[in-house]
Amino acid sequence: MHCVVYKSLRQFDYYLFVKKEEGFSRLPDGLKQILGVLEKVIELELDEQRSLAQADVREVMQLIEERGYFLQMPPRAESVSPVA
Questions:
Q1: pLDDT tens column, 38-60
Q2: DSSP 8-state secondary structure symbol assigned to residue 52
């Protein structure tokens, strides 16, 4: 699956994966408004052998097929400990 990854200039650390041939055609209007301006980061070929840093590639591919996009959001801090 040939994908393009964009980063949101409004939402820090939000990355949008879409099929190159579909672009933003299946992206909901509400999500477009939330993300604001998007900047292209990279084009890549997704397959089951590829490793992604913060997501399972199979899940990413499945969601792109089903919804037309995959939105990677920053991981939530599970616990914050003060620095002494």
A1: 999 999 999 888 888 888 899 99
A2: -
